[in-house]
Amino acid sequence: MNKIAIVVLADTTPADGLGRIVNALMAAKEYKDARADVRLVFTGAGTKWIAELGNPKHQLHEVYAAVKDRIAGACGFCANAFGMTAAARAQGLRILEEYGPNMSFAQLTNEGYQVITF
């Protein structure tokens, strides 16, 4: 079975940001439903989605909740830069700092994950 890492970089503000997060969440759900080894990672401006999606009133909260067990975490540097560290911790997400204060793409690929970015 494939090992897939879905990395969310999309900001919450651009017109295409909503489309990107929908595709990221649905891809994670599809792989999860297929029993694939899938991880979801938030990095860059994508860390801003953590607070948005954690809100039960958000239109995508249900699908976010369905894949929350597949969230590997949020990049430490990026979560801090965008003020999302507290939101990530409040939702029980790991702060990823495998490469200094950053999440590690190399670790994902070294562990055999195919990286898909949104």
Topology:
Blueprint: E1 3-8, H1 17-33, E2 37-42, H2 49-54, H3 61-67, E3 71-75, H4 76-81, H5 85-90, E4 95-96, H6 105-110, E5 114-117
Parallel strand pairs: 1-2, 1-5, 2-3, 3-4
Helix pairs in contact: 1-3
Summed up:
The chain is an alpha/beta fold.
Task: Describe, in plain words, how this protein is organized in 3D.
- By secondary structure, the chain is an alpha/beta fold.
- The chain has a single domain (3-117), classed as DsrEFH-like (Hypothetical Protein Ychn, Chain: A), CATH 3.40.1260.10.
- It is 41% helix and 19% strand.
- It is built from 6 helices and 5 strands, in the order βαβααβααβαβ.
- It has helices at 17-33, 49-54, 61-67, 76-81, 85-90, 105-110, and strands spanning 3-8, 37-42, 71-75, 95-96, 114-117.
- The longest helix is centred in the first third of the chain and has 17 residues, at 17-33.
- The radius of gyration is 13 Å and the shape is globular.
- The two termini are 22 Å apart.
What are the salient characteristics of this protein?
118 residues; alpha/beta; Hypothetical Protein Ychn, Chain: A; five-stranded parallel sheet; globular
